[in-house]
C-alpha cells in the first residue's frame, strides 16, 4: 500500500482552510499557495467569497505568500469569484493533471518545494499535488457536491481515507 500513501495521502488533513497554520508553512519554507475553489474556499454553489474567506486571503497577502486559485471549474465561475479578491487564477485546470499546477508554480516564481496545494478532493487536488512534488493539505468539503464524477471520486476517496485512518496516518476524525 506504499503507492497509495505516496499518491493519495495529503501532508496535512484539516477541517477547513481557517485551520491551516501559516507559521508552520513558513517553517517548511513554503512561500506559495495553490488553492482549489469549489468546496475548499466556499460551497460549490456559492458565487462569492465570504468575509471570512476574504480575511483569509488578506492574511496570506500580509504574510507575504504568493497565491493562485487553481480550479477545474469554468472561466465564468472562477473569474467572478476571484475578481474581488484580486488574485491570480487558472480555470479548467484539469487536475489531477500536473500542467496547471506547474504553470501556477512557475508564474509565482517558486520551486515546487516552496508550494502547497490546498483542496477538498483526494482524487484531484491531493493526487495532482503529490505527483507534482508539491506539499498537500486536504480540507473537509464545505458542502457535498452533486456532480457524478465527484460522487465517484468521493466513493474511492472514502475507501482510501478509511484505509489511512486504520493505518493511523490520519488522526483527525470527522464529526
Ligand atoms: Mg473542490
Automatic annotation (TrEMBL):
So what EC number does this one have? 3.1.3.-
Q: Which GO terms describe its molecular function?
A: phosphatidylglycerophosphatase activity; phosphoglycolate phosphatase activity
Q: Which species is the source of this protein?
A: Staphylococcus muscae
- Which BP terms does GO give this entry? DNA repair
Q: Which UniProt keywords apply?
A: Hydrolase
One protein family per Pfam: Hydrolase
Q: Which PANTHER family does the UniProt entry name for this protein?
A: PHOSPHOGLYCOLATE PHOSPHATASE (PTHR43434:SF1)
Name listed for the protein in its UniProt record:
HAD superfamily (Subfamily IIIA) phosphatase
Please state what class of enzyme this protein is.
hydrolase
